[in-house]
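Structure first, sequence second, as always.
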C-alpha cells in the first residue's frame, strides 16, 4: 500500500521525521561518531531458523532473535518518488527502473548502461550506511532486488551477477546485521507497479505478466531458476535471515482485479509452493518468507502445504490520518496485529514494510505495539530524497538525474553523489530505543498477581466485590479483591480478570475512562498494553483510547485511563 502513496500522496506530504542514527557528538551531518558500540559479527552459530512463532539462532535451537531494522529501498531498484532520478516524457518515457535500463541502452548501449547503473549503486549504499545502521542498533536489513540485477535483456546471467549481493552480506555480517533477500521485482512484474521495476500505469493487471498473459509461465520458470541459484549460492551463509519470495503480489488491484479471491489465492500459493520446493531442493536450512497482500487471510495455513521453517510477512500503511490526529495510525496497526493473532498460524510473523508518517508519538506507540507483540519488523525505508521526508531514516538532497536528456558525463557525475544524505534526527531521538529494546512479553507477569500504585504505594483493589471502580487504597494484598489474573491476548495486549467477581477489567470510556471489573468477555475496552519502565515498574495503557492508566490521588486513588504521558501516578508494580 505504500505504493499508492508513492504516486498520489508522496509529493503532497514531506514533513515527517523518520531517522536512523542518534549518537552524541556527530562528526559531521550524516556521519556517525568514530566511537560506537560494536555488535558481534554474524557467525555460524547465528544461523536463524523458525521455531514455532519465533526465530532462534543456532539453527533454531538457540536464543530467540527478534529482527528489527529497515529496508535498503532505492538501492538495487529505483522508485522515482524516493530516488534522485526524474520522471520524463517525450522521446523516452521514463517512469520505472526498466525504463532507465532501456533508455540508457538505447542512448549509449547495454555495456555503458550497466556501467552507469554501477556508478549509481556503488555510491548509493556504502560502508558508511552499514555503520549508520549498526550505530542505531539495527540487526536486520531487508534488501529489495529485481531480476534485472542478475540477467541481461535476453535472460542470460551477467558475469558478476552476485558480486554486489556477496559484498552486501559480507559488510552486514561484519556488523552483526542479518539480511533478508527480497524479490522485489520478479520477471514480468508481479503487480505492474513501479516498485517491481515495470510500471503498467493504469493497466497494472495487464502489465503483471508474471501472473497473467502468454508469458506468465516462462516468467515463472525464470523466477524459479533465479531462486534456485540464490539458494544454491547462499545456502550456508548465516547472514541471510531468509528468502522473501515475492514483494506485494497483486498490490493495488488485490481486491478489484475482477478475479475471485479463490483464484488469486490458488495462483499465488501454488507459486509459493513451487518456489519453496525449488529452494528446499538445495537449501534445507534458511527461512522461507511468504508475503500476504494484505492480510493473514491471503496466506494459507502452512500445514496445508507441509511447509516448515517459514515466516509470514505483512505490510501496513494508512494514509487517511497522516498526522495521527485521530489515532488511526495506531488502531490500524492494532487491527492488523489482531488479524495475525486470530489466524494463529504457528510461524514467526514479520512486518516487512510500514510507516507511521508524521507523528513521532505515533512512531513510538506503533513500534511499541510491534515489540510487545514479538513481531519482527523493518521500516520502509532507510534513505529517501527530500528534507525531513517522512519515509526515510536518512534524507538525500542531491541533484536529480534525467536519464532521457542528461549527457553521459552528467549522469555519471550526478549518480556519483547519491550517497550524500543527512539524518532525520528529530524522530531518531524518539525511536532509537525501539530498535534495541528487549521484547516485552517475556518481562510481563501473567497469571494471578497484585498491583501496587507507585503514586501512593497502595495495592489496587476491585472494591465492593468488583462493583466499584478499581482503586489503589489497600495497605496489603488481602485476597480475591486485590488479585488479578493477567492474560496475554496474543496481539501485544493484556487483560485483567478480577478474582473478586471473575469479570474482566474494562476501561469505561464513556464514564470518565474509569476502570471497572464488569465484563464477561474480552473486547476492545478490556485490552491494555503493559510496558516495563527503566526502573522496573510498569505502565498500563488502554487499548481503547491509547491513554495511560493513572491512580488519581485527587480522587482517592481511583484508576482511570486518561493520561497521554506517563509519570509517577501512571507507574505500577506488578507482583506475584
Amino acid at each position: 500500500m505504500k505504493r499508492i502513496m508513492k504516486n498520489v500522496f508522496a509529493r503532497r506530504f514531506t514533513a515527517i521525521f523518520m531517522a536512523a542514527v542518534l549518537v552524541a557528538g556527530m562528526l559531521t551531518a550524516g556521519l556517525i561518531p568514530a566511537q560506537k558500540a560494536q555488535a558481534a559479527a554474524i557467525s555460524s552459530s547465528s544461523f536463524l531458523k523458525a521455531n514455532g512463532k519465533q526465530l532462534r539462532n543456532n539453527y533454531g535451537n538457540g536464543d530467540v532473535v527478534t529482527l528489527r531494522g529497515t529496508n535498503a529501498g532505492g538501492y538495487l531498484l529505483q522508485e522515482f518518488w524516493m530516488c534522485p532520478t526524474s520522471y520524463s516524457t517525450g522521446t523516452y518515457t521514463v517512469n520505472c527502473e526498466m525504463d532507465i535500463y532501456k533508455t540508457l541502452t538505447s542512448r549509449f548501449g547495454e555495456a555503458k548502461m550497466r556501467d552507469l547503473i554501477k556508478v549509481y549503486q556503488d555510491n548509493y549504499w556504502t560502508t558508511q550506511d552499514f555503520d549508520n545502521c549498526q550505530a542505531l542498533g539495527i540487526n536486520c536489513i531487508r534488501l529489495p532486488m529485481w531480476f534485472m540485477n542478475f540477467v541481461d535483456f535476453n535472460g542470460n546471467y551477467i558475469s558478476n551477477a552476485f558480486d554486489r549481493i556477496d559484498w552486501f552480506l559480507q559488510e552486514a555480517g561484519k556488523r552483526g546485521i542479518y539480511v533478508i533477500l527480497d524479490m522485489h521485482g520478479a520477471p514480468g512484474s508481479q503487480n505492474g507497479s513501479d516498485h517491481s521495476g515495470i510500471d503498467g500505469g493504469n493497466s497494472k493487471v495487464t502489465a503483471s505478466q508474471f501472473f497473467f498473459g502468454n508469458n506468465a509461465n516462462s516468467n515463472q520458470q525464470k523466477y524459479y531458476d533465479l531462486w534456485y541459484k540464490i539458494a544454491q549460492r547462499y545456502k550456508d551463509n548465516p547472514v541471510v535471515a531468509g528468502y522473501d519470495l515475492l514483494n506485494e503480489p497483486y498490490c493495488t488491484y488485490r481486491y478489484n482485479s475482477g478475479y475471485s479471491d479463490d483464484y488469486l489465492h490458488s495462483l499465488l500459493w501454488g507459486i509459493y509452493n513451487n518456489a519453496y520446493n525449488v529452494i528446499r531442493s538445495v537449501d534445507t536450512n534458511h527461512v522461507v518468507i511468504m508475503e500476504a497482500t494484505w492480510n493473514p487471510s491471503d496466506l494459507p495455513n502452512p500445514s496445508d502445504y507441509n511447509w516448515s521453517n517459514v515466516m509470514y510477512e505483512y505490510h501496513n500503511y494508512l494514509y487517511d490520518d497522516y498526522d495521527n490526529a485521530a489515532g488511526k495510525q495506531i488502531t490500524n496497526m492494532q487491527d492488523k496485529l489482531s488479524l495475525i493473532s486470530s489466524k494463529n498460524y504457528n510461524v514467526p510473523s514479520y512486518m516487512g514494510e510500514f510507516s507511521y508518517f508524521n507523528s513521532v508519538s505515533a512512531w513510538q506507540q506503533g513500534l511499541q505495539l510491534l515489540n510487545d507483540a514479538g513481531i519482527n519488523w523493518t521500516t520502509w525505508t532507510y534513505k529517501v530524497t527530500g528534507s525531513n521526508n517522512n519515509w526515510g531514516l536518512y534524507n538525500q538532497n542531491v541533484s536529480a538525474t534525467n536519464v532521457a536528456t542528461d549527457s553521459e558525463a552528467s549522469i555519471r557525475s550526478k549518480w556519483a553523489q547519491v550517497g550524500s544524505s543527512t539524518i532525520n534526527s528529530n524522530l531518531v531521538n524518539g525511536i532509537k530505543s525501539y530498535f534495541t529494546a528487549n521484547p516485552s512479553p517475556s518481562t510481563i507477569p501473567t497469571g494471578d498477581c497484585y498491583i501496587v500504585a507507585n503514586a501512593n504505594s497502595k495495592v489496587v483493589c476491585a472494591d465492593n466485590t468488583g462493583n466499584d471502580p478499581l482503586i489503589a487504597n489497600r495497605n496489603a494484598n488481602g485476597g480475591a479483591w486485590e488479585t488479578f489474573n493477567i492474560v496475554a491476548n496474543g496481539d501485544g495486549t493484556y487483560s485483567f480478570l478480577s478474582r473478586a467477581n471473575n469479570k474482566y477489567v474494562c476501561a469505561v470510556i464513556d464514564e470518565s475512562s474509569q476502570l471497572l471489573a464488569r465484563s464477561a468477555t474480552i473486547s476492545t475496552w478490556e485490552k491494555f498494553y503493559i510496558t516495563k519502565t527503566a526502573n522496573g515498574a510498569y505502565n498500563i495503557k488502554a487499548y481503547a483510547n491509547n491513554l495511560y492508566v493513572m491512580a488519581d490521588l485527587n480522587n482517592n486513588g481511583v484508576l482511570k485511563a486518561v493520561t497521554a504521558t506517563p509519570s509517577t501516578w501512571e507507574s505500577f508494580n506488578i507482583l506475584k
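Margin note: The longest strand covers residues 178-185.
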